[in-house]
Amino acid sequence: MRYIGLDVGRDFAHAAVVQDRGTARKLGRFRMGEELRALAATLGPDDVVALEASTNTWALAELLGRHAGKVVVSNPLRTRAIADAKRKTDDIDAASLAELLAADYLPEVWQPDEATRRLRRLVAHRAGLIRQRTATRNRVAAVLARRLVRPPMTDPFGVGGRSWLASLELPSDERLALDAALRIEAAIGAEVAAAERVIATTVVDDPRIRHLLTIPGIGLVTAAGILAVVGDIARFARPAKLVSYLGLDPRVRQSGDRPAHGGHISRQGQAHARGLLTEAAHAAVRAPGPLAVTFQRLQRRRGPGVAIVAVARKLAVLAWHLLTKDEDYRDARAALVGTKHRMLDRLAGRAASRTRPSHRGATGSSHDRGR
């Protein structure tokens, strides 16, 4: 059996191979495209290939998987912790992957199916648009700050806000910058809406979305983000595993005879999903219910920041239970759940149902409003 390690870069992949349990030897450097496809064609069912997770990982894993017996995708952070070395080259990294693979000591990551990868791409696309829109809005805020002007409304990008911005008397250069930013912001907003429609169409028939949307604070975007990150909930044996995967678990420090003490959250793993859950927590605590009670109790003792993170962690635990047990949130508000259902139907291009939600709770959302 051959164990092959691939160190993948933007233009090239360096390969090394271990035959049975020997030492690694260099296979060479292969250019992305035809050369890499030619390498893949030489693989057989007795070959196992390892590569680290990166931007083009899943396309490479699919290509190699057509020929190799198995493709292993490793966690680069944990691989570096195991095989850290003073000398570091692409060839050495490829050899390290091959040797760790042959020794069955390579930290493997879960490989999502195509549907999950597509949902991840959609969620990431929308997140990128939101970052661009935020940067554009910040440019508008900068223009106003330079002119010592404060908007009289909470949303200067709504209909009334845009009318007010158009009426401002500004120097020509500031007017040029402001109008350009507003046009860009409007164009990005249209793209965000288009992305959300595609996300809604993709997940509208997924019962897992309907379970998640029964949780206060969670709308379409958050629910889709959780599903994109989680994929198969069965890979998390218990809620703590999911919490840790999202980086919402507290760090623990202990040494010698000193007692263990917790610190800030680890912030490891999926930053985007963690941010979505934190935003959802802010919305959830505004509605009466157990989550709001938890927030108020912790806020008095630890402050609002710690309390919000604790609620975000509870949302992750709730998501695990609902997805694992295939059920809805027991304390869901039927009227709000019905509103979410109708909003989701509209986004997905379906006629909104006026029927009351079932005892299991119908769900839906748009843009994470109406949470």
- The level of helicity is 40-55%
- Tally of structural domains: 3
Secondary-structure element series: EEEHEHEHHHHHHHHEEHHHH
Main sheet: strands, sense, barrel: 5 strands, mixed
* Backbone shape: globular
**What is the subunit arrangement here?**
single chain
Strand order of the largest sheet: 3-2-1-4-5
Q: Give the overall average pLDDT.
A: 88
Residue fraction in strands: 5-15%
- Helices, by number, come to 14
Keywords:
371 residues, Nucleotidyltransferase, domain 5, alpha/beta, 53% helix, five-stranded mixed sheet, 14 helices, 7 strands, two-stranded antiparallel sheet
Secondary-structure topology with pairs:
Blueprint lengths: L1 E7 L3 E8 L5 E7 L2 H8 L5 E6 L4 H9 L4 E5 L1 H7 L7 H13 L11 H33 L12 H9 L4 H32 L3 H6 L7 H11 L8 H7 L4 E4 L7 E5 L5 H14 L5 H13 L1 H22 L8 H14 L24
Parallel strand pairs: 1-4, 4-5
Antiparallel strand pairs: 1-2, 2-3, 6-7
Helix pairs in contact: 5-7, 5-9, 9-11, 10-13, 11-13, 12-13
